Amino acid sequence: MFYANRSRFKKLSIKTGIFFARFHLSPNQWTFVTLIPVAVTMLCILYQSFLLAAVFLIITAFIDMIDGAVARILGEVSRLGAYLDTVMDRYVEFLIIAALIFAGLPDFYLPVTLWLFLYLFGAMMTTYAKAAAKEKDIVMNEELKGGLMERAERLIILFAGLLLAGLDSVMFLSYAIVILAVGSNFTAFQRMWKAVRKVRAF
User: Fold this and answer.
1) CA–CA separation, 83 vs 98, rounded Å?
2) pTM of this structure
3) Side-chain half-sphere CA neighbours of 72 within 13 A
4) To the nearest whole number, what is the mean pLDDT of the chain?
């Protein structure tokens, strides 16, 4: 969804890159800086400080945007940087899910741990569906991007769940996890179906 409107964020990315390039950190160093706020996010979740967790999740997402913005401004865009960024994205999402498993959240029809497993599985399969199709030369990299719930959408839904859990009831976080579990797997199937259609077209 956000991928389809990525051009709207181009100006913000340029301004962000210009500002943070002043700190003399390489794009790859900015990638690893992401681990600091995500560690704080995990601690906040474990101690059920959900409002703080929401704040640090946004900080994590913002820092995650910095590395690519700085790389473009400095002319240091590289395959290594793109690889590290993708791997770090998976680590960030896994660490947050791991913290949620031990946060003592209420169940919703099924155990919340099962919903979290489905969320993790869907998030990983969304990425793998694209990687596998590219590896088998079924599609180009750009052709399998998009879908109902990519990483940006997942972060927004998780942020909303944490925010509402902090302001109202922790049950809202369980609702968010259910939405993430269903939506992420649906997106993975969207990408797989797109790859299948591409093969059948030949």
Assistant:
1) 23
2) 0.86
3) 14
4) 87
